[in-house]
Specification:
The protein has three helices and nine strands; from the N terminus they run E-E-H-E-E-E-E-H-E-E-H-E. By secondary structure, it is of the alpha/beta class. The strands form two sheets. A five-stranded mixed beta sheet has the order 1-5-6-3-4. The protein is globular, with a radius of gyration of 13 Å.
Length: 112
Amino acid sequence: MARVGDVVTVTDAAAARARELLARSGATGLRVTVQSSGCDGFVALLDLADAPRPDEIEVEDNGVRLYVDVPSMLRLPGATLDHTRTRHGAEFTWDHPGCAPEQHTKHTEETA
């Protein structure tokens, strides 16, 4: 199993919130899918998952398993997954230094 840190950096805040969501849902990991967004940007989406699909690679760090398909994996190196709370709510955010400022912060709003 690869380490998440070899692909992305997961902050302590993101790991703590992910562990909370996983414990509450009974899921074993987070599925990461990178999709096209806008003119030439990408967005990395997170979903709760019970196991990796046959076409996914399992990576783990900080007590959090991520299930990532190969095309998404190729777009993630250098990215950081964080979790922030504001008075308006909470969200996971992605930052990727290789993207333009208007493209590099992408998030998946929490539904749990």
